[in-house]
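Contributing new records

If you add data, match the layout below exactly. Sequence lines come first and carry their own label; structure lines follow with theirs. Keep one chain per record. Anything else will be rejected by the validation script.
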Amino acid sequence: MEDKLYGKYELPLKLFYIGNMFRYERPQHGRLRQFNQFGVEVVGAKNYLLDVEVILLGYTLLKTIGLNYLTLKLNYLTVGAARTKYLAVLTAFFQQQELCADCQICVKKNPLRVLDCKIDQNKFDIAPKIYDYLTEEENNEFKALQSLLTKLEVPLF
């Protein structure tokens, strides 16, 4: 960061962006190198209430533009030793599967990216779930996040 935003402003820092973006990798079929994107970020604080705020903002925006039949699918990434353990179990699972060429590369680089595969998606229903590897603190935080979103009438999958 050229302007050192992390040292200039009070944290947490809430940012938004909107504009033209460009893909670095070669475009896949039906995807262009240039595309439009918008988003929001909150940096400098770890608090599930900030996650609720960002999710609620996105949900409200989508409803406002007319997407009324939404169900949100939440995920929660663990950190530290719990993440290392999960990635090892996930990698071992993938190594026992017949995967497409791209997925075989992803297993070595970033096993979580394999879960995005459209070709082998049907094989992942029995994959180890990250929720089984959350620490007690992370599990409590994730349940609190889900509970609050449910109270705010955000439909969750």
